[in-house]
């Protein structure tokens, strides 16, 4: 008589689970990195827009900080707009406005430890 053939019934389920154990954390990690990059890019754009707003001839740095907060609250949660500050500085011999945004983003899931992101926006001050 011939050799007995091994029964492979149900092995597809085991293979599927083994692949999911690797694939699910990989996909979730990619989504989390995308979320952190989205927050950082949004904060950077808002800081730059706020600096340009504050640098116009009839505005002051507080106007730029308020504009930045409004931009952030329109796209992200309001908690990201708490650490906004603006000040006048000198950069390469020119008067500039610098808007700084400090926010904490959880890099390891929504409940993980927070990572601080600090971004700056600069604009040359207009002279009346």
Structure characteristics:
128 residues, alpha+beta, three-stranded antiparallel sheet
Output mean pLDDT.
87
For the sheet with most strands, the description reads: 3 strands, antiparallel
- Share in β-strands: 15-25%
Helix content: 40-55%
Order of helices and strands: HHEEE
Strand order of the largest sheet: 1-2-3
Q: Please report the distance between the alpha carbons of the first and last residues.
A: 101 Å
| Low-pLDDT runs | none
The tally of helices reads: 2
Number of strands: 3
Summarize the entry for a quick read.
The chain has 128 residues and is of the alpha+beta class. It has 2 helices and 3 strands. Strand 1 (83-91) and strand 2 (94-105) form a beta hairpin.
Topology readout:
Layout (H helix, E strand, L loop, with lengths): L10 H45 L5 H15 L7 E9 L2 E12 L9 E10 L4
Antiparallel strand pairs: 1-2, 2-3
Helix pairs in contact: 1-2
């Amino acid at each position: 008589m011939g050799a007995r053939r091994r029964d492979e019934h149900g092995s597809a389920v085991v293979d599927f689970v083994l692949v999911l154990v690797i694939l699910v954390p990989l996909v979730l990690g990619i989504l989390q990195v995308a979320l952190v990059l989205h927050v950082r890019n949004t904060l950077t754009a808002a800081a730059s827009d706020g600096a340009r707003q504050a640098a116009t001839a009839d505005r002051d740095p507080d106007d730029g900080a308020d504009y930045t907060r409004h931009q952030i609250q329109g796209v992200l949660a309001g908690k990201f707009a708490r650490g906004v500050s603006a000040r006048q500085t000198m950069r390469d011999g020119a008067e500039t406005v610098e808007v700084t945004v400090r926010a904490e983003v959880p890099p390891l899931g929504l409940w993980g430890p927070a990572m601080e992101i600090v971004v700056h926006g600069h604009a040359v001050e207009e002279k009346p």
